[in-house]
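pinned: reference chain
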Amino acid sequence: MSVIVRHYVKSMLLHVLVISVGFAMVMGTFEVIDKLDKIVKFSPSFSDMVMFWLYITPKYFKYLLPMSVLMATLMVFGQASRYNELIAYKAAGGRIKRLFIPFIVIAILLSAADFAVDEYVSSRFNLEANNLLYKIKNKRDRLVYKTTDIWFMEKKDMIVNANFYDPRQKALYYVTAFITKGNGITEIIKGKICVWEGGRWVVHGGTRYDAEKLAIEPFDAIPLGEFSAINVYEENELIADEMPFSELNKYNKRLKAAGYNNQKSLVDMYAKLAYPFTCLVMMLLGVAISSRFKMGSGLINAGIAIVISLLYWIAYAMAISFGYSGMFGPLFAPWIVPLVFAATGCFLYMKMQE
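pinned: its structure tokens
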């Protein structure tokens, strides 16, 4: 029996790898084509477009891995069901539920792998993709550095440090602007909040330190000009896409400490934990469906997988939207759909006929 399991495991993993990588490459190509009409006027080089494609492809691998698991499951066990291999397996004394246990374990490992891709690859590559877009459009590097906070150089004579940035409110919190001249700092401006007002950034409620006059002066508001270095966030790029779970967790703690309503950011953070769980959900659904029904050809099985995945993503997107709006709690919103589908898959799995 172990020979049969090894055969199915090898076939399953090969299908998952080919499908997920293939679809990710295709979707990455589509995004490059979609962006091309917006940036072609900036004359991007061929190498820049290739690098952009390489940076965004892991994002689609992360999103498409669960669908690839379902499609691979239906194709491998659908074929086994079609040619009565599962019936022969049961006739030889095998237990169908036990046959599928290794694949449940594989799904758990794939869920962990999906989380790891986002934590160590996808988020960081999204940051590089945004940096590259900024460089193409502005012909200079996007000098934004994320350490425990944010640093960026907007002009040759200004370096800005901020505790965190909220793109929805377009506000920088706990800002320090260093004004330089030559090789020295001539002025330091510190404020609690810096907001976009009247086409420029304005620091409110802070202190101004004049290094040349050795003077300290409190102020209500001081304009700093325009910060194009962070404008990439205003182009429908979510800050969560650039942050792995560990960084987003720290970001939310800082928002909470500042007394800010961080509902959307919390939903995004919990979604980074919930979405990889979809690999296990899809495996449960796949083995339950393929064991209960006589499946068709590979194309039909692939079509069934796409339909189920679309229904899942639509429901998941709606739950996330309800979470953003505050109708669902930030923890409940990203987990409700995976748990409901997982419960359905578990129910069908337990009802399998031996």
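why pinned: Confidence is low (pLDDT under 50) at residues 232-238. Residues 2-139+255-350 form one domain.
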